[in-house]
Write a structure and sequence with these properties.
Blueprint: E1 2-9, H1 11-29, E2 34-40, H2 44-53, E3 58-66, E4 79-82, E5 92-100, H3 104-115, E6 120-128, E7 141-145, E8 151-152, E9 168-174
Parallel strand pairs: 2-3, 2-5, 5-6, 6-7
Antiparallel strand pairs: 1-9, 3-4, 8-9
Amino acid sequence: MHSELSMLVSHSVIEEAVSRLARQITEDYRGRPLVAIGILKGAFIFMADLVRQIGIPIEVDFMAVSSYGSGTESSRCVTMVKEPSSDVRGKDVLVVEDIVDSGNTVSFVMQHLVERGARSVRLCALADKPSRRETSVVIDYLGFTVPDRFLVGYGLDFDNKYRCLPDIYCMETHGSEG
C-alpha cells in the first residue's frame, strides 16, 4: 500500500488564519485570565503558533483523549488519556483543537471542563469538517472549513506519520493491505 498526498491548505494560508484567530482571541479576552487547553497530539503545532501570537497573558495546558486508534475512522468512543494539570474552576478556558470532525471528541472535552468548574469554555479549531458532524458543536474561533477527505500535516496525522509537514494535505491510499 502506498499513500499519495495532494496539498489542500498552504502554510501561508495557515499562518494567516492563525494570526486572525489570535487577534480575535486577544480582543475577546483582554483583561481576563485565560487558560488555553490543547488537545493532544494533533493540536500541538497549531497551539504553539497560536499562543505565541495571542497578545494577553495566557496559561497553557494540554489534555489527551482517544477516539481514533490506528485507522482513519473515528471509533465514536472517547476516553480520557491525560487530564489537564491546571485547575480550571472559575476560569475562562479556550479549547484548542486541530480539526473538528464528528464533534464527539470536542463535545466530550468541553463538557468535561464545564463539569470541572470552568467559568466559560470556548472552542478554537484550525479546521472544521462539517460534513462529518454527528454531535452539534459551536466553534467560536475557526480557521477554515475543509472537505470530507482524510487530512495530514500541520499536526494532523495518519498512524502518527505526516504531523510535521508545514502544509495540510489530502491523503489518498492506493493498493492492498496485508
